[in-house]
Automatic annotation (TrEMBL):
Lineage, uppermost ranks: Eukaryota, Metazoa, Ecdysozoa, Arthropoda, Crustacea
Molecular function GO labels: 5'-nucleotidase activity; magnesium ion binding; nucleotide binding
Record family assignment: Belongs to the pyrimidine 5'-nucleotidase family.
Signal peptide: none
Keywords attached to this entry: Cytoplasm, Hydrolase, Magnesium, Metal-binding, Nucleotide metabolism, Nucleotide-binding
Protein name, entry field: 5'-nucleotidase
Keyword Metal-binding: yes
Length: 373
């Protein structure tokens, strides 16, 4: 199911490549370098073991207990983790058996619908497309990097609660939004930014969306990134059809088509359960569609379905894009060892029904939909 391997660090849709790969190389003294290598060796042994271990071998009778998961190939794939087999089997079987008329899809965008890496290089997020565009001025990249270095450690800090982090996230987003306004971005320029980027949908996404469109299944794309850019990406790959709704941060333009601000409520990584979509009639209009396939790549994404009327059957599929050993390596160099706790496999397995490690495809969701009638 997986096509390639790689790693990417992200922060609410923003990539950490700028901090890690700045104009000056990171300088480490010999003592620190030795300590880093010592700690990394011990830590990576543990994380390597966690990532490389295949799922336990299942006896024939165990496979019989989970026939739907077995049919989908989820029991033997080495990059798939399922903590509660019985729950996953029940959810998938219910969703498949109920058919398309009972289904809706809720998905994050950056690193969920899109690949995290392409041909060995980090794929660009909606923020990354703008960050790396030649059409953006140099001062934007410099200031954006400073903000990233300041606020990203707060976003991933394991000792802070979400409530403590939220004011800083709002501050970060407001500052980056003001910075973008200074750049006088034209609406016309976005298409060129996207076409020249390396942003790619996960393999199989076009086929999945085509099937969802032909069967009238509603798709909600919920993103803390740049709505105008991600919409352009969806159009670029011909998946922005009339059954797809996007909730994100959208630009406001003047009469000349120049971006002058943002519309509506701010969407950040920790408020996907509080956005206006949950107080609107969107989910009410979908009453009867109580089966949900939710897809995300961060723990905050599990809240996206909180507006779905109960009772509901929500299958949560989590993409663990960052290899733990590589994340640990980078964060030790940055003296940010605590990121490991945020990204570790155990946390994902405790919150998602199915965890996909470095899977650059939509094979799992596509296979589930493929069984439906």
């Amino acid at each position: 199911m997986i096509s390639s391997r790689g790693t990417v660090l992200r922060a609410g849709g923003r990539q950490l490549t700028r901090v890690l790969g700045g104009s000056r190389p990171l300088e480490l003294n010999i003592d620190l370098h030795n300590k880093v290598n010592c700690v990394r060796t011990k830590a990576t042994e543990s994380s390597d073991s966690a990532l490389s271990c295949a799922p336990p071998s299942f006896m024939p009778e165990t496979r019989t207990m989970y026939p739907t998961l077995e049919k989908l190939g989820l029991l033997s794939a080495t990059h798939i983790r399922i903590q509660d087999m019985a729950r996953a089997e029940e959810l998938v079987t219910t969703i498949v058996g109920s058919g398309f008329s009972k289904l809706q899809i809720i998905a994050d965008y950056d690193m969920t619908l899109t690949r995290s890496h392409v041909n060995g290089e980090r794929a660009e997020t909606s923020f990354g497309i703008m960050d790396n565009s030649a059409q953006m001025p140099a001062f934007y990249r410099e200031e954006a990097n400073k903000l990233l270095a300041k606020y990203y450690p707060i976003e991933i800090h394991p000792k802070m609660t979400e409530e403590e982090k939220i004011p800083y996230m709002i501050e970060w987003y407001e500052q980056i939004h003001k910075l973008i306004v200074k750049c006088q971005v034209s609406q016309e320029s976005l298409k060129g930014m996207v076409s020249s980027s390396n942003a790619r949908l996960r393999d199989g996404t076009e086929d999945l969306f085509s099937k969802l469109h032909s069967t009238n299944v509603p798709v909600l794309v919920f993103s803390a990134g740049m709505g105008d850019i991600l919409e352009q990406v969806l159009r670029h790959f011909n998946v922005y059809t009339d059954n797809v709704k996007v909730v994100s941060n959208f630009f406001k333009y003047n009469e000349e088509g120049v971006m002058v601000g943002f519309k509506g409520e701010l969407v950040h990584v920790f408020n996907k359960n509080e956005n206006a979509i949950h107080s609107s009639n969107y989910f009410n209009k979908l009453k009867g569609r109580n089966n949900v396939i939710l897809m995300g790549d961060s723990l905050g994404d599990i809240k996206m379905a909180m507006g779905v009327p109960q009772p509901s059957n929500v299958l949560r599929i989590g993409f663990l894009n960052d290899k733990v050993r590589e994340v640990l390596k980078h964060c030790l160099l940055l003296n940010l060892m605590f990121i490991v706790q945020e990204e570790r496999l155990e946390a994902y397995m405790n919150n998602f029904d199915i965890v996909l490690i470095d899977d650059q495809t939509m094979d799992v969701a596509g296979s589930i939909v493929g069984l439906m009638k």
